[in-house]
Each structure stands twice: as structure tokens, then as C-alpha cells.
Amino acid sequence: MANICVICDREFFNPFDQRVYKEVKSMTKNGHNVEIITPHKNTENTKINEVLVHGIGTGGPFGLTALKILKKAIEKEYDLYYCHELDPLVYSWILKKITGKPVIWDCHEYLVPMKRELQGDFSALLTKVVINLAAPKTDHIITVDNTLAKQLRRFRPVTVIPNYPTIEDFPLPKIKMKRKLPNILYVGSLTEERGAQKMIKAYKIVKESIEADLTIVGGFYDSKLEKWAKDYDSKYNLNINWEGWIRYTDLAPYFSEADIGLCILQDSERYMKAIATKIFEYLIMGLPVVTSKGHMSDKLVRKDNFGISVDSSNENEIAQGIITILNQKSIQEIAENTMQFSRDKYVWERREEKISKIINKLV
């Protein structure tokens, strides 16, 4: 049994970081004592599933939050530091020098292209330099797919643990409630790069042909995009069900009430190489998927007849993909086959024991 400090790159609670949550549950299941340190709106402690979460207030001058996180991380004698994404990679380098304790780095994003997309070329270059300097100082790297693993293997040993959903948090309903209208579901962040505009415009086209609902679970990061989306919804009387951010543990009922899932990421280096977590969540709940042609998810969906891949830049093609699935007479049969196959393969519980093996080896 080990005392483990999990350090987050960003706010753990809002939006809820489901990968951190799943890993912490796996650690505690195997008898480890775990505490989480996360940037937070206030400096306060709380608990989630009996795990202590140290919220570190993000107010004040640049660098103060990082110093407070480091201070909190060395206040208690931990056996291992489990660090997520970029900033905690830097913290881990410092913590290892101070404490001599082993470090696991969990990298679940293509960080360099992500920084280039969001903050420009200089930020991407700086991120690359940080990874090159700090990643070799870790003891083990965990990541989400084989492509990213190949990039990181030159630094340290790498283990791939895909970001699959948990059966525990996505139980099948005993009876699936039948809605009057077919329900299209989108779960996740709402940005242009994730196809928010294309999705909403495509839904308008769908409604011109068939009656259907659109439920969106997630939030905006861009106030201009949010205003456009709400205005467009109102202008064309789309009556979109805007649910906002929902905690990971409360998502299952929304999947149970849906007939089809959308994941129409736009073409970019960041998104084309990986399969979005929401794809697997849709599949284990038996939802056929409309996803982006040419992406990693395209191959998955086409290979096992899990849905349709479309040109994600073309709202007409997205709309036609949705209509095609909703008009299929065998949609219920497809849903049952999808669910049965996915629950045997694409679930967190099939991979979680790897975490414990790595921890036991290091401590």
C-alpha cells in the first residue's frame, strides 16, 4: 500500500476530469491511500468517494498557484507522485529533486499540437522543450494510445491505458425509455475545433427532413461561440436541449435516452491521431456514432459497423449521416450488437490493473 499524491494540470471539478477520477478509483480499489492536488477557484479541501482533494486557489500573480501546489505536495510524505499533463510534469521534476520519490507522468493529450492550436507556435515550441527536458526525469509514462506512446518511448518506459469508460459508471438501464422523437446526443466541450458550429447547422438541416431532438451535454470556452449558438438556436426554433456540464458519474442517463451519438471533430493534428473518449462512451451504451472521416475513429466505426463517418467540415454531409442512421430499420439491432461487443472490449476495468503493477514496481 502506498501514499500517492495525484497532481492535476487543470481544475479537477469543473469540468470534471474523468481520467483522473478513474485512475484514482483504480488506485484506491487496490488499497492505496490517494490525495489529489488541483488548481481550484478557492483554496479549500473536499472529498470525492472518500478521497481527499486539496483545492489550490488560482488567484494572485503569475506562478503563485504553482508555488502553492509544490508547497502542498511536499507538506506530507508521499511515496509516489502521479502527475497529469504539462505543468505537473515540471512540478514532478522539482519534487523528485527535493524528495527523491518516484514519479509517474500521465500524458493524455497531444500537447505540442494542442498548444500550437490554442496558443500559437511559440507555446508549442516551449512545450516541446519542456517535455524533452522533464520527461526523461520521470520514472514511468502512461498515455492513452499507441501513437502517442511511440513519441514518448524515447524518454522513459511507457504503458498505454486507453481512456475507456467504466462499466460501473455506465450501467445499462433495466428498461430503456422510449421517447416520442429520436434523440441525437453530443457530449463534450463546445468549440469550433470540436465541430460545434457544424453540428448545430447540421441539426437544422436534419429538422427540415425529420423530427428529432438534439441534446448537448457540455460547455463553451468561447463566449462569442456560445452567443452565436444560442442565437442560432433561437432564430431557427431548433429547441436544443442545453444541459451544460454534467459530472462524469451522472452521464449514463443521458446516453440511455439517446438514439445516436455525435463526434465530429474538425481536421487538425491534435484530433486526427486519437479516438475521442466520447466515442467509447457512446458505444458501450449502444449508440451508433456519426464521426469524422479520415480520423482514427473512422477506422473503428467502419470496421465494426458502429455508425457512419462523414466529412466533418460539411454540415450537409453530417446531416445526411444522422438521417441515414435514424432511418435504418435495423437501428435497434445495430445498437445491441454495438453495446455487446464494446462492453467486452472498450471498458476501463480491462486495463486498470496496469496502474497497480506500475505503482507496486516503483514503490
UniProtKB/TrEMBL annotation:
SUPFAM superfamilies in the cross-refs? UDP-Glycosyltransferase/glycogen phosphorylase (SSF53756)
Which superkingdom, per the lineage? Archaea
Q: Where is the Glycosyl transferase family domain?
A: 178-332
Q: Name one GO molecular function term.
A: glycosyltransferase activity
Q: Where's the Glycosyltransferase subfamily 4-like N-terminal domain?
A: 20-163
Pfam families (UniProt xref): Glyco_transf_4, Glycos_transf_1
Q: Does the keyword Glycoprotein apply?
A: no
Alphabetic keyword roster: Glycosyltransferase, Transferase
Determine if Transferase is one of this entry's keywords. Answer: yes
Q: Which PANTHER family match?
A: GLYCOSYLTRANSFERASE (PTHR12526), TEICHURONIC ACID BIOSYNTHESIS GLYCOSYLTRANSFERASE TUAH-RELATED (PTHR12526:SF629)
Protein name, UniProt field: Uncharacterized protein
